[in-house]
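Need residues for this backbone.
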């Protein structure tokens, strides 16, 4: 009998499951992982953080965080995934018991799934804003809009549950349809279109500002290296952005790694993913800043940069309708391919528990996220409420609750679990075998980082997030 009941995994079940689907090649994995990592975080969050925290200085700190925390954790997650060839819940448990660790490690996988279910409704609602803005820019409604006008248009949208509900439903249904088709027919086919699409749109946006005076100003701003602006808050923002942008700590990369062909190099694949993710984030800054500068606006507006400042800029410039539509399409593609990776851990868990077939598993996960999303849709209107977290008053209801729970608590906790599991529970030999290349210098650097440096860094983020330091 196959495993039933969620986490007991028999040897037969494992043998059965190891006949499961895989990416068709290493390139397919890289495309899917780039799709997962390049998301709203790159196109929306990264540019406004760079604007807020002083250009090149912030970018340098961020690159440091990617190298010291991001890449080592991604290597660990993908290696654990591939070693187990299972979803995160069964995977943690299976590897732990194989190496005489505690079966309770399955809780780490479960926590990752909870994190994906918290982030996905947020993602869906922001994707809904994006779709609404795509229609608005394309139809010319925003031409000539003023700063105040753009602000009130945005506020009207987020407090209009009916509109948001429609977009949210559309987004979740589209994710469910792809997830239901499986790894190769669903995910792989989607990312083969989305990821090159993302890249091409970004390139055309860049080409638009190429050589112009505004690009020079954007570069000047970025290269000014204002180290004063990188406060403690800025350093922590760089660190959590590194986590978020690489989709770490929630099993998304673990499940993608579990579909990675056995002969593919984990180091080369993950390094390509980190490199492309970073490149795309920097390209996004170089696309967004010149547009904002050319309209005489400021890039240091915080989260309002994309939905409030950019529409004003698009509304003022020749060709703004086309450029604006391209930009929001880019954001939508990015959100969509990341959304797919957020569904996969839960769907795979249900399938590999033997509880449901893939189609029904996708429907059940889609339904849960859709229901949670209704609460998020109402967060800025009927169901808004206020609360204080780490000395900050938050007014965004369930939106803010899920945001804090996932980005500030569950992601770092998940990262900590991965670091402890890979660096301490599993043996060094097993990890070296899975990562490949033997126990050379590179391996030792990775091992030192994952065993000592990453756990300390993550605990600092966690303490900071809950207001402990
Ligand atoms: N990496 C995505 C982004 O930058 C966010 C994400 C986190 C996606 C976790 C999937 C899993 O927007």
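Answer:
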């Amino acid at each position: 009998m196959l495993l039933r009941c969620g986490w007991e995994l028999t040897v037969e079940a494992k043998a059965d499951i190891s006949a499961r689907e895989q990416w068709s090649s290493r390139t397919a994995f890289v495309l899917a992982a780039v799709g997962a990592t390049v998301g709203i975080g790159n196109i929306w969050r990264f540019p406004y953080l760079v604007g807020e925290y002083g250009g090149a200085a912030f970018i340098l700190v961020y690159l440091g965080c990617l190298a010291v925390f991001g890449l080592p954790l991604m290597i660990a997650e993908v290696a654990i995934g591939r070693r187990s060839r299972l979803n995160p819940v069964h995977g943690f448990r299976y590897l732990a018991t194989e190496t005489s660790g505690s079966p309770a490690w399955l809780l780490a996988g479960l926590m990752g799934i909870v994190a994906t279910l918290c982030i996905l409704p947020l993602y869906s609602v922001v994707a809904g804003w994006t779709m609404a803005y795509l229609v608005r820019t394309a139809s010319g409604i925003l031409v000539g809009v003023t700063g105040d006008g753009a602000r009130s248009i945005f506020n009207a949208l987020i407090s209009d549950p009916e509109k948001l509900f429609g977009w949210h439903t559309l987004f979740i249904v589209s994710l469910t349809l792809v997830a239901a088709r499986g790894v190769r027919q669903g995910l792989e086919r989607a990312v083969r279109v989305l990821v090159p699409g993302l890249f091409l749109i970004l390139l055309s946006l860049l080409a638009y500002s190429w050589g112009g005076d505004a690009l020079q100003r954007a570069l000047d701003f970025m290269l000014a290296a204002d180290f004063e602006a990188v406060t403690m808050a800025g350093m922590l923002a760089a660190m959590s952005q590194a986590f978020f942008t690489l989709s770490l700590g929630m099993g998304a990369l673990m499940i993608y790694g579990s579909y990675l062909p056995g002969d593919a190099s984990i180091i080369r694949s993950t390094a390509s993913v980190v490199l492309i993710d970073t490149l795309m984030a920097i390209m996004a800054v170089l696309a967004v800043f010149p547009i904002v500068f050319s309209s005489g606006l400021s890039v240091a507006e915080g989260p309002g940069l994309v939905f409030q400042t950019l529409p004003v800029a698009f509304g003022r410039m020749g060709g703004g309708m086309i450029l604006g539509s391209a930009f929001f399409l880019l954001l939508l593609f990015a959100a969509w391919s990341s959304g797919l990776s957020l569904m996969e851990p839960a769907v795979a868990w249900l399938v590999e528990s033997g509880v449901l077939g893939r189609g029904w598993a996708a429907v059940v996960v889609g339904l849960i996220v859709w229901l949670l999303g209704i609460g998020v849709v109402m967060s800025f209107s009927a169901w808004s409420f206020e609360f204080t977290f780490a000395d900050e008053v938050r007014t965004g209801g369930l939106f803010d609750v899920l945001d804090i729970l996932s980005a500030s608590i569950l992601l770092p906790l998940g990262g900590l679990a991965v670091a402890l599991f890979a660096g301490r529970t599993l043996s060094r030999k097993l990890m070296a075998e899975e990562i490949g290349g033997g126990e050379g210098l590179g391996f030792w650097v990775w091992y030192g980082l994952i065993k000592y440096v990453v756990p300390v860094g993550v605990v600092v983020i966690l303490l900071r997030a809950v207001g402990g330091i």
